[in-house]
Amino acid sequence: MTDLTRMSAAELAKAIAGKEASAVEVATAHLDRIDAVDDRVHAFLHVDREGALAAAERVDRGEVTGPLAGVPIAVKDVIATKGVPTTAASKILEGWRPPYDATIVQRLRAAGMVMLGKTNMDEFAMGSSTEYSAYGPTNNPWDLGRIPGGSGGGSAASLAAYEAPLAIGTDTGGSIRQPGAVTGTVGAKPTYGGTSRYGLIAFSSSLDTPGPCARNVEDAALQMQDGAHRVCRLAAHLHEVVVGIGGESRRIEGPFGLRGRRGQVGRESARRQQRCPETGGKGSANHAASLQEKTAARRPPFPFADDWCYSAAGAGCC
């Protein structure tokens, strides 16, 4: 079989469900990978080997099932994990083991996902390079002399170094998306309220949002579908979201549909694409301009609207 650490989350889930590999084998392969490379990458602040293997054994015994059951995941150290050190990369919280799980961690455990450990970050998420952790910086696996972005550089680096197939990050002003860009991985900030922030050590409570980190878009979408729409503890309402995975449309139902809603592509987006032919050049720019013309009647009700880009779901960032 292909090296288990090089497989995507979707491939691992299929292999585990088909008994081609056990959850324990998958967890062990990733834990061994962490042992082999993390002294150079420093993506993890704490590795929960005992807890990960125990969770994997429960999956193999059939006690926990789900689309991603047995798939390993790394969790940013700003998210509370019961009995597992949670420091937000600060000496202030050194030794703290929360007496409860964050809601998103509860749901990931219930889905049978295997938490490998806690990832490094800028202290209390206040940084953009993961250089400002009280426990030392994280290095970019592509070039150990460069940063992995931040504040969630540990989560992104764990993916790029093949230490984990999935990770959870948090995004206030780019702390999932920017490390994804810097490390060549995938990160998305869900619409605020789409994922629960209960159990998240706050940076800015009205902006902090847990979200998926992965090596490809399919895995990020699967992670959201398997957890995000079930983690709303704070009376958050999800819009209807449709994500195409492998040619199949999977629908997450919410109290508000998207039918009849419109999105907008700003003039700046068209200008950028025109300046960058590698991303489509004139054709893409013309398409963006056409979309803007069609949606011109639906303009955001605040200044600088022409230079903003909106997702169809409404409150998302882009």
Outline the structure in words.
The protein has 318 residues and is an alpha/beta fold. The protein folds into two domains: 233 residues, Amidase signature (AS) enzymes, CATH 3.90.1300.10; 59 residues, no CATH class. The chain is built from nine helices and eight strands. A six-stranded mixed sheet has the order 1-3-2-4-6-5, with helices on both faces. It has a two-stranded antiparallel sheet with strand order 7-8. A hairpin with a 2-residue loop joins strand 7 and strand 8. Helix 2 runs antiparallel to helix 3 and helix 8 runs antiparallel to helix 9. The longest helix has 19 residues. The radius of gyration is 20 Å and the shape is globular. The relative contact order is 0.11.
Largest sheet: 6 strands, mixed
Count the domains: 2
* Run of helices and strands: HHEHEHEHEHEEHEEHH
Q: Write the CATH architecture name of the largest domain.
A: Alpha-Beta Complex
* Helix-residue proportion: 25-40%
**Which stretches of 5+ consecutive residues score pLDDT under 50?**
228-256, 272-284, 294-318
* Overall residue-averaged pLDDT value: 80
The count of helical stretches stands at 9
Q: Gyration radius, to the nearest Å?
A: 20 Å
What quaternary form is this? Answer: single chain
Large-scale geometry: globular
CATH class of the largest domain: Alpha Beta
Terminal-residue CA separation: 38 Å
